[in-house]
TadE family type IV pilus minor pilin (Kitasatospora camelliae), 115 residues
Amino acid sequence: MTAETAVVLPALVLLAAMLMWAVVVASDQIRCVDAARVGARSAARGEPDAEAVARAAAPAGAVIGLAQDAETVRVTVDAPCPGPGVLAARLSVRLTASAVAAREDVDTLHPGGGT
């Protein structure tokens, strides 16, 4: 093995580890977005277990927030994503996503109940 290879090889291993971590972060971000969307759809339909539905789709350790008003529902997903290996504490990131949906369980066109 040459000296150049001995210097380049650890750098390539580090680069590969960072690229794999980036894929994990992107995957968890997509899961956060999906969890927020499925939770918002579920809550908009008036399902009582909307938070549990969102939690099932979210990454491990995610915190689900649900807020409703007269016409809309908002679901926010906040999840930790630790860094790779020994750098887990230093390179950890927080991933967030939110989704808003119009409520389907209330009549927003006729709030008085009339036709």
User: Anything to note?
Assistant: The mean pLDDT is 88. The radius of gyration is 21 Å. Residues 3-44 form the longest helix (42 residues).
